[in-house]
Amino acid sequence: MGKHEIFKALLVLAAVATTTGAMMSSKDNDGRIDYIEFGAQNLERTKVFYGEVFRWKFTDYGPDYTSFEDGRLTGGFSQGDVTPGAGGGMLVVIYAVDLEAMQTKIEEAGGTIVKPIFSFPGGRRFHFHDPNGNELAVWSDK
Q1: Closest Cα partner for 128 from 14, 99, 3, 70?
Q2: What does pLDDT average to over the chain?
Q3: Beta strands 57-60 and 33-40: pairing type?
Q4: What are phi and psi of 5, to 5 degrees?
Q5: Containing domain of residue 97, as a range?
Q6: CATH at 124
Q7: Which of 54, 75, 94, 123 measures 20 to 30 Å from 139, CA to CA?
Q8: With the C-alpha atoms ordered 60, 93, 140, 114, is the resulting torsion angle positive or negative?
């Protein structure tokens, strides 16, 4: 993972930690979808579109990332190549109370870890492919 990718991941995860706060530390939220991340070729055009059509609110985290709030769910847009199925589409981020235990469960169920656990301000995260090849991420604030 290059410096740019690490910086982008840190921005994403800082946004996750900021938007979810203490709410996600509850065991009741273990295994729930917490954040959805999309690719975007042009962040400004993306913000105008979703802001005008759906009235979403945005918070920028550097030049290549913006988070959104739709009133119920939070997520973000990461600027870069948007190629479905090639890591440029949507990324669903799931919360876990115990990151290592969740990683073990995923591997035992046939998932493949594609980005090992890494730290960021506010928590830790890893990415995996499900048995269909979809990439998802799991994060924890612990």
Answers
A1: 99
A2: 80
A3: unpaired
A4: -65, -40
A5: 3-140
A6: 3.10.180.10
A7: 54
A8: negative
Q: What is the pLDDT of residues 57-116, one digit of tens each?
A: 999 999 999 999 998 889 998 887 665 444 556 889 999 999 999 999 999 999 999 999
Question: Side by side, which strands form the sheet with 65-69?
Answer: 57-60, 65-69, 74-79, 33-40, 91-95, 135-140, 123-129, 112-120
Q: 41 pLDDT band (50/70/90 cuts)?
A: confident
Mean pLDDT across 109-126? 92
What is the tally of structural domains in the chain?
1
In angstroms, the CA 120 to CA 118 distance is 7
Lowest mean pLDDT segment, chosen from 16-20, 24-28, 33-37, 96-100: 16-20
DSSP 46: H
Predicted pLDDT at 123? 92
> CA 96, CA 125: separation in Å to the nearest integer?
9
| Rounded Cα distance, 9 and 5, in Å | 6
Angle, alpha carbons 84-69-55 (nearest 5°): 95
